[in-house]
């Protein structure tokens, strides 16, 4: 796998529910088309040329060396570190039906190194969690493992998440961690409208699939970005405000009934500032 070097790794994120973060990979083989904010930023800053270049991930070869220098410097400022906002830490290779080994190995070493200094880690993937994480002698029980799940419709997946792991496999890998007593969460965003996914009104099906998770984050799709990305004609679905309010209400009611913590992202109907520090 191609590698690059960086001058720094740890940084404070501006994402509303984040704290500190690391992006130890440039690019993502999943090739999501929501659009992918990370890919657009990578193109803007000249890190990649185009979509195909984005789908050829590059490892930050000096990531562990940077961590050794930066952990002592920032440790007292860090509540937790998130992997990742600009890539996927357990990236799936659809052609070989597996987690990409080099990425998995580096991610596990990073989590282990942060945990060794008492720094907990939150993780989010559209890939598959490896069984290595079940080893609580190596990895902290305080880590929180999440998946992104915005649909169960395979036609939608084929169009918008073409190379990520299957929905079922993704859920099962998270459930295995939950059954082992580890902390799990789910990001249901960017959530599509029925214009993009005919099953979107039935979010109950997704919620029932992930009933074991301890936390849920929900957020709407930004249609303006979708228009700019793929040249769609409409800037919004005709009933988007009402739709997202109704769906957010279903998420809130489900979480309250099942004793699940939740956060409705800013800009989405029923968002609440009091819940933004969901990982604090």
From TrEMBL:
InterPro entries: MJ0683-like, rSAM, rSAM_sf. This is Radical SAM protein. It comes from Thermatribacter velox. It comes from the Bacteria. Residues 22-188 form the Radical SAM core domain. The keyword DNA damage does not apply. Gene3D superfamilies: 3.80.30.30. The lineage of its organism: Bacteria, Pseudomonadati, Atribacterota, Atribacteria, Atribacterales. Keywords: Iron, Iron-sulfur, Metal-binding.
């Amino acid at each position: 796998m191609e590698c690059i070097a960086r001058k720094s790794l740890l940084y404070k994120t501006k994402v509303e529910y984040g704290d500190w973060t690391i992006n130890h990979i440039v690019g993502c083989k999943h090739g999501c088309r929501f659009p992918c904010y990370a890919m657009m930023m990578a193109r803007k800053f000249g890190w990649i040329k185009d979509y195909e270049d984005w789908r050829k991930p590059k490892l930050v070869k000096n990531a562990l060396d940077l961590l050794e220098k930066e952990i002592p410097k920032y440790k007292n400022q860090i509540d937790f570190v998130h992997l990742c906002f600009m890539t996927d830490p357990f990236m799936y290779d659809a052609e070989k039906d597996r987690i990409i080994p080099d990425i998995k190995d580096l991610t596990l070493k990073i989590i282990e190194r942060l945990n060794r200094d008492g720094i907990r880690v939150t993780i989010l993937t559209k890939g598959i969690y490896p069984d290595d994480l079940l080893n609580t002698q190596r990895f902290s029980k305080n880590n929180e493992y999440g998946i992104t799940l915005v649909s169960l419709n395979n036609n939608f997946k084929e169009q918008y998440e073409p190379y990520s792991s299957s929905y079922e496999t993704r859920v099962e890998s998270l459930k295995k961690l939950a059954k082992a007593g580890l902390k799990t969460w789910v990001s249901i965003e960017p959530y599509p409208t029925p214009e993009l996914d005919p099953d979107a009104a039935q979010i109950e099906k997704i919620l029932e699939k992930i009933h074991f998770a301890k936390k849920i984050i929900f957020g709407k799709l930004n249609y303006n970005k979708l228009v700019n990305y793929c040249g769609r004609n409409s800037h919004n679905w005709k009933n988007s405000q009402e739709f997202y309010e109704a769906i957010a209400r279903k998420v809130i009611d489900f979480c309250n009934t099942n004793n699940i913590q939740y956060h409705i992202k800013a800009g989405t109907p029923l968002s609440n500032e009091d819940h933004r520090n969901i990982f604090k």
